[in-house]
């Protein structure tokens, strides 16, 4: 079969002599119709970050891809809840291939409802990630929320905020890509900020107003931001303070929450005094609850969330290098590989 093989930063190519997988006990084989390029895939491609654990290794070759959708072609011993020919979403390693084995459990395999296309369904995992972040943030009605990084994950956070929680106050999207910021407005952000052109802290304060920290000497005003959801993490080549530092600086004086999801490509210095002064809650978020994988698909099927508009490009597996370069260009939102495209 054909599969994308990652070898070194900047080097990924299709190879056509990869052995076909076989369904082991408790597994199915999915014929992959669409596989998304994730931010963690991109970090691996750029700097070799997060390489371990992301890829399926076959004969010493590494196949990336962990968010995909397709048709079940074979079932292993003990599998009773899924059948050959059924459309399904898979979460696992090696999705940038024509066929991939997936363990049968509610975290990694879920049936596709009617009315959802393969490319939409391949965004199920990132939407489930977004649903978990919103759950962990515990957004209350009227609270102002800032979302750093509005690629597919951050846009999903905004969609989840609109579809799932009590009405937030202002939803501010921050990104260096104007096209992504435009999409953020389209899916529900009330305001956008491009840090390449604007002072983030001053602009956020102007949008949200301020609260005074009276316990500090002298008393100090901070933006009235209750929640920051960081989908950007730390990207080495980006200039300026990383989102986590800006998040600490912009939170209101007390009761603020930060949810960290974006990958970190390395270490960086940080001023931790706002943690002492403001006593925020900082939570990491990795993955999702099993029920959120199914919820993500139901939101698509019901029309409450439109994921099709977030698919910016589609490539056959033969053009995997071009697909990664497109995902890395700062303009694309979600690039899909179609391993079985004619």
From TrEMBL:
Question: Which keywords does this chain's UniProt record carry?
Answer: Metal-binding, Oxidoreductase, Zinc
- The answer to keyword Oxidoreductase applying to this record is yes
MF terms from GO for this chain are: oxidoreductase activity, acting on the CH-OH group of donors, NAD or NADP as acceptor; zinc ion binding
Q: Which InterPro entries match?
A: ADH-like_C (IPR013149), ADH-like_N (IPR013154), ADH_Zn_CS (IPR002328), ER (IPR020843), GroES-like_sf (IPR011032), NAD(P)-bd_dom_sf (IPR036291), Zn_alcohol_dh (IPR050129)
Q: Where is the Enoyl reductase (ER) domain?
A: 7-337
Claim: DNA-binding is one of the keywords in the record: no
Give the Pfam families listed for this entry: ADH_N, ADH_zinc_N
Question: PANTHER family in the record, alphabetically?
Answer: L-THREONINE 3-DEHYDROGENASE
Give the UniProt family note. Belongs to the zinc-containing alcohol dehydrogenase family.
Supply the name of the protein: (R,R)-butanediol dehydrogenase / meso-butanediol dehydrogenase / diacetyl reductase
């Amino acid at each position: 079969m054909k599969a994308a093989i990652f070898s070194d930063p900047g080097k990924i190519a299709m190879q056509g002599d990869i052995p076909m997988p076989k369904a082991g006990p408790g597994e199915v084989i999915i014929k992959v119709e669409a596989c998304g390029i994730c931010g963690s895939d991109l970090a691996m491609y750029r700097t070799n970050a997060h390489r371990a654990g992301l890829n399926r290794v076959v004969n010493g070759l590494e196949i990336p891809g962990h968010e995909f959708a397709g048709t079940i072609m074979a079932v292993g011993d003990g599998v009773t809840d899924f059948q050959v020919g059924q459309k399904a979403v898979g979460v696992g390693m090696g999705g940038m291939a024509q066929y991939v084995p997936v363990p049968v459990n509610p975290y990694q395999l879920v049936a596709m409802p009617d009315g959802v296309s393969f490319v939409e369904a391949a965004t199920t995992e990132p939407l489930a990630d977004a649903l978990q972040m919103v759950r962990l943030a515990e957004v209350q009605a009227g609270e102002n929320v800032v979302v750093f990084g509005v690629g597919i994950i951050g846009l999903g956070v905004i969609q989840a905020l609109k579809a799932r929680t009590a009405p937030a106050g202002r939803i501010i999207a921050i990104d260096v890509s104007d096209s992504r910021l435009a999409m953020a407005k389209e899916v529900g952000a009330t305001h956008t900020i491009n840090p390449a052109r604007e002072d983030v802290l001053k602009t956020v304060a102007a949008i949200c107003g301020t609260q005074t920290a009276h316990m500090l000497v002298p008393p100090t005003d901070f933006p009235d931001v209750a929640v920051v959801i960081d989908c950007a993490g730390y990207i080495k080549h980006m200039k300026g303070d990383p989102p986590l530092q800006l998040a600490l600086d912009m939170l209101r004086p007390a009761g603020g929450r930060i949810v960290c999801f974006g990958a970190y490509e390395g270490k960086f210095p940080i001023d931790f005094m706002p943690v002492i002064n403001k006593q925020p809650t900082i939570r990491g978020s990795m993955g999702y609850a099993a029920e959120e994988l199914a919820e993500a698909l139901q939101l698509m099927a019901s029309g409450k969330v439109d994921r099709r508009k977030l698919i910016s490009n589609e490539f056959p597996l033969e053009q995997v290098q071009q697909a990664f370069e497109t995902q890395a260009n700062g303009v694309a939102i979600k690039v899909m590989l179609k391993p079985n495209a004619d």
